[in-house]
Design goal:
Length: 137
Amino acid sequence: MRLRVVAVGRPRLAYARLGVEEYARRMRRYAPLDLVFVRKGEELLPKAEGHRKVVLDERGRLLTTEELYRRLLAWEGERVAFLVGGAEGHPEAVREEADLLLSLSPLTLQHELALLVLMEQLYRVLTLRAGHPYHRP
């Protein structure tokens, strides 16, 4: 599985930037990862061309870690892009192209925090896939 995370704007908050960098470093031990930052939401889709598209959206489906793991296993061998919008959310065109609209929480999350939570969950899923004991249900 090849993962790409495309986010609007680089994290400016120190905790988010450091956390995203740390989880990206950890994830690359388990799967190829591209971490791409764009300036505007309209730039997300071109960066996800040829990938399954998982769009983070507060109106999306809430999945457990295990459900996300199973979904990604079903896409094994494919390229999967996770699209994280900026403060304004996603343009409608991005939501319409989604293979999966995913909500990380019923709460509204600041976009840098949402990116960090996504990175931790992707790391968790990759360790599950590898049989690593990081995830303890």
